[in-house]
Amino acid sequence: MPARAATIAQSGAAELIRRAAALIFDVDGTLAETEELHRQAFNHAFTRHGLDWHWDRSVYKELLRVTGGKERIRAYHDRLRTALPLSDADIAALHRIKTAHYAELIETGCCPLRPGVTDLLAAAKARGQRLAIATTTSHGNIDALLSQALGSRWAADFDAIVAGDDVRHKKPAPDVYLEVLARLKLDASDCIAIEDSANGLIAASCANIPVLITRSMFFRDDDFSEARVVLNDLSELGVQTKSEKQPHAQ
């Protein structure tokens, strides 16, 4: 673990969370391990569109350095020197097919929230902390995931939800975080960003928001040396809801 992150123990990380006025969550990889479903949905769209493209996990891991689905498609196309022209309309059509199939996959219930997420959300709500989302993904993708995981009224628990299409520049630019701060009317130092990737860490840090990293499947080897703390997942915070607390052994 990076030296700076290692200076904050798990108990310190829990205190860092408790002191925050607001918790700002990334979505893909942070709330749930969605990236594998996104990869499958991209490949489905390519087949439906008559393209002979296939993104295996190693290719997709590299492409994840490009934030945004349409941007990812364009980046891959641009590096295929012999590829036929692909217009912005073609890319938009591919992305619509991909997004629809992603929602279908999510609806099967195959992508639960990561360990510790539900408990942290419940504990934050009980403490009166404000919750927000700052993500590169689309509002449709957020709703597909959280409606399945938290119920159709999930958005009522979040004071600000900022997606990639709401701002001019996507992560690693700080735009989504700056917009969240503006909507919450809070200082950066009063918040904690919960992220899983170097791009997310850079985005939040550029907005001067302290960052807690929860390592995910595709980004676990990123450089997190600038994070306040790095955890394998949010269950390491030791948060328990009242219903889960057990009495002490006699």
Description:
The chain is built from 10 helices and 6 strands. With 250 residues, the protein is α/β, with parallel strands linked by helices. The chain has a 6-stranded parallel beta sheet, with helices on both faces. Helix 10 links the parallel strand 4 and strand 5. The longest helix is centred in the middle third of the chain and has 20 residues. The N terminus and C terminus are likely disordered.
- State the assembly state of the protein chains: single chain
What is the N-to-C succession of helices and strands? HHEHHHHHEHEHEHEE
How much helix is in the residues? Answer: 40-55%
Count of runs of 4 or more consecutive helical residues: 10
Q: Largest sheet, order of strands side by side? A: 3-2-1-4-5-6
Distance between the termini: 38 Å
Mean pLDDT score, rounded? 91
Q: Nearest-angstrom radius of gyration?
A: 19 Å
Beta-strand percent range:
5-15%
SSE class = alpha/beta
Question: What's the count of strands?
Answer: 6
Shape designation: globular
**How would you sum up the major sheet?**
6 strands, parallel
Which stretches are poorly predicted, pLDDT < 50 over at least 5 residues? 1-7, 241-250
Topology, element by element:
Blueprint (H helix, E strand, L loop, with lengths): L2 H4 L3 H10 L2 E4 L9 H14 L8 H7 L5 H10 L9 H20 L9 H11 L2 E5 L4 H12 L9 E3 L12 H10 L6 E5 L2 H9 L4 E4 L14 E3 L19
Parallel strand pairs: 1-2, 1-4, 2-3, 4-5, 5-6
Summarize, please.
The protein has 250 residues and is of the alpha/beta class. It has helices at residues 3-6, 10-19, 35-48, 57-63, 69-78, 88-107, 117-127, 139-150, 175-184, 198-206, and strands at residues 22-25, 130-134, 160-162, 191-195, 211-214, 229-231.
